[in-house]
Every structure is written in structure tokens, then in C-alpha cells.
Amino acid sequence: xxYLSISRKVKYYTKQILFASMILxxxxxxxxxxxxxxxxxxxxxxxxxxxxxxxxxxxxNKTLIEMATKDSLLNSSEGNYYDWRFGKIYYRKxxxxxxxxxxxxxxxxxxxxxxxxxxxxxxxxxxVYTVDLLGCGRSEKPNITxxxxxxxxxxxxxxxxxxxxxxDVVATGESAAIAVMACGxxxxxxxxxxxxxxxxxxxxxxxxxxxxxxxxxxxxxxxIGTLLYNIIHSRExxxxxxxxxxxxDEDTIDYQMTKIYHESAHNENAHSKYLFASIKGGYxxxxxYHCIRKATNSICIISGQYDENSIEIAKQxxxxxxxxxxxxxxxxxxxxxxxxPEGFAEQLDILFSAE
Length: 355
Fold this sequence. Notes:
Blueprint: H1 2-33, H2 39-69, E1 80-84, E2 87-94, E3 98-103, H3 116-122, E4 126-131, H4 148-163, E5 167-172, H5 175-185, E6 190-196, H6 201-204, H7 210-220, H8 224-232, H9 235-246, H10 255-270, H11 273-281, H12 289-294, E7 299-304, H13 310-320, E8 325-329, H14 336-339, H15 341-353
Parallel strand pairs: 3-4, 3-5, 5-6, 6-7, 7-8
Antiparallel strand pairs: 1-2, 2-4
Helix pairs in contact: 1-2, 2-8, 2-10, 3-15, 4-5, 7-8, 7-11, 9-10
């Protein structure tokens, strides 16, 4: 019923705007036929049409955001907020034992919900902290350029001020580079590191170029950029991402979770678009080659068997740092912690218990 009322509202406003546009066009045509359409009138008509078009797109954006967030599935009552200098960071603490910090993948739709299934298992032996990175989930989403070093600062400050002691870190995808760089920044904050399907060293070394900077600019444009972001992060697109990238077995997909991912991408008026723009602009990547070679931390990699190039990427890391231990979880893709939480927790226990 809510979807229908929202759709009717948009259809109503769209029809009104289109009706007004048709009147303007017909009036312009009649004036042209009479030879009375001056340059001033042409510019005035174009300006009015442009304004009406912008209003239409704004209404569409507003509707898409309202539809994505209407269920309020991202529950923040179970956690707390760390009042960091660049914005409030949502986190949840559970369990008792040696501190373990879980970092979700660096994507506009991602959040600590990625760890929901496995965190409860890990909490039996650890004090588990899950965070929503700045620009994601329930954390604040400021209009800034997001960089790897920004997240390194966030991670370092969070461990020092909230955890209060050295913590082991498990990080997915591009977030793994944040943990590695944090070790290089301050060797007293992180103990062991487990990287889950990290990006390749080659991919991380890429710098922003003219094309990616232009793409960042386009996404950040008000109204048009927001529409582009909303289309890319539609419910259908996120469902497809779960099928094609995140999970191997389509039968294991929890569509309630895909709804949460969809909501996460659109809450706070879809301000995750600024993080998305920085990711597409290449600003969140950094070359970790020298840092990972110098790191004295115990590092391991967990790969999903069917995640694209994950086995080859793990071997690439191991080639440069032979001490890195690698494990593969069968019949999984990019998020094995969602697809096989028990198996993931078991592998992690083996890796972290080994001296």
C-alpha cells in the first residue's frame, strides 16, 4: 500500500509537470508561427522546462529514497555511537575475550550487517566489535572525499578510544587495505589481520586519473548525480549483486538482507553517494605493497572458492610475503561469512589460534 501511494504521488506530480511543459511548448509553437518568439522568450521557455525537469527528477529521487528506507530495517538500538571528529561511527559490542574487530567491505551499500551471522559465533570466544565505516550503514555520511588514510585514522582512533587495547582485525575486500595501512601507521593498535577476499595489489596501486575524477564529479552533482546513484543502487541491482558477486549458492540468499543492503545505500538521503563517488574516483585505493612487506603482524587470507580471481590474488600476496597463510572456503564467493558462517568461524579460529 505504501509503495502504491508513493507511486501515485510521483505519477501525479509528473503528470502536472508534463502538462505544464506541453502548455509551454504549444505556446512557443504558436508564437513561432506568428513570428513573435524572441530570443528572450526562447531562453525563458528553456529555463522553465529545465526547472520543471529538475523538479521531476528531484521527486523521483525522493520517492526512490522513501521506498528504500520505509521499513527502517537498519536497527541502531543494539549498538552505540563513537563521536569521531569527521562524523559519528556506529558500532556494536558483544561477547567476552580477546578483542576482535570486524570491518565490512568498502561499498556504499555495505554495513556491519555483513557480519551479523558470524559475529554471534565469534562472540563465544572473543569480545567482538562490528562497525559501520564512515559513509556506510548507520554511521554519518558527510559530503567529503573518502580516502584510505581517512579510514586508517578512523580505525586507529576507534581502537585506541573504544576498544582500548590491541585488537585482531578481520576485514573484507577493499577494507583489508585499511587494516594493513593502519599497522604501518601505528604498530601498537592491531595484532593479527585476516583479509577476506582482498583486492589485488595491482588494483590497489591504481591512482585517480582524469576519467575517474570526471566520474566522481558526475556522481556528486545534485539531482542528476543522485538519480544515477539511485539507479545503480536499485533493489534489483543489489539483488543481482548478491547473485553474481556476493554469494555462490543462490538458494542461500536471504532477501531480507538484500533489503537491508538496499536501505543502507539510501538512508540519510542517499548520502552514501559521496563514498560511492570517491570509490569510483579511485580515492579509496592506496599502494600497500611496501607496508605489507614490512609488517610484523601475523597475516592470513580467507578466499571464497568462486570469488573472481580470489585464489590467484591470495597467491600474489603470498609471493611477496611468504609468511602469509591462505585458506579457501569451498562453495562460497565474495562473502563466505554470510554464506557459511560456521565454516568461516572455524577457519578463523584455526588461523588466529596458530602462533
